[in-house]
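Our working data are protein records whose layout never changes between entries. An example says more than a description, so a record of this kind follows.
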Amino acid sequence: MMSHTLLTLKFVQGIPLVGSITGVYDALYMHRLSEYAQIQYEKRRFYHNVEQK
């Protein structure tokens, strides 16, 4: 679902006035994705450390 939204936002960014608004949403979605990636990285690192012990 998020990928569809991001694709739509990228398409709409080509329109001058609307593009500036969608740029803000793009930043918000990138922030959410970065948080999710950080959580996944921490989980992977935690499980890797547990398996080594």
Summary: Residues 17 and 23 are 10 Å apart (CA to CA). Residues 16-52 form the longest helix (37 residues). The mean pLDDT is 82.
